[in-house]
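Late entry, evening session. Most of the bench is empty. Finally got around to the prediction I had been postponing all week. Sequence below, unchanged from the version circulated by S.P.
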Amino acid sequence: MRSSLLALPLLLVSALASAQDRGVAVNMGRGLDNGMSVGWTFKENWTLRPTIGAAYSQQSGFQAAIGSTILRSVNLGERFYLYAGAGVYYGSANSGLGGVGQVTGGNPRSSQSSNAFARSTGSIAYMTAPVGVRARVFRNFEAYAEAAYQKTLTGQFGLSQAGQFSGNERERYGATFGISLRLQ
């Protein structure tokens, strides 16, 4: 039942008018989905957004992710289009500084704390269902705003993710804002 709810936006959007030509775009976003991705519009209105990423920070340690989202777009005018999609991702993370069992700030009671931001989440696999709007700003530059529902298949989300509106360790809602450069 839940997986059919994730596919519903794709089915509804696919019946509407055309919006996007074939080509490649580089996306840079901040929010629930941070960083850069590449979108490949392989057929008019259908975009594949594969992601391979790696990052390191002192607070969350090494993180890596791989996955992809398929999107269907709809024309909302000359410069705007709406899109919806579904995707699956797999990632892993190690705990960094400030993890469970580590004394921080000179407070011995903090050694047993469960800091959700720095806690290791181990491996995680999750589904995502984004819905967004894009606007051509100038020539090949576009701005976008995207909301997404994400649910874990295995593992759990950290509780303090940028762009997260609500949720828990198993499912969450959030937003991403960014810009794109269309290369073709």
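Two things to note before I forget:
The first helix runs from residue 2 to 14.
The radius of gyration is 18 Å.
Will write this up properly tomorrow.
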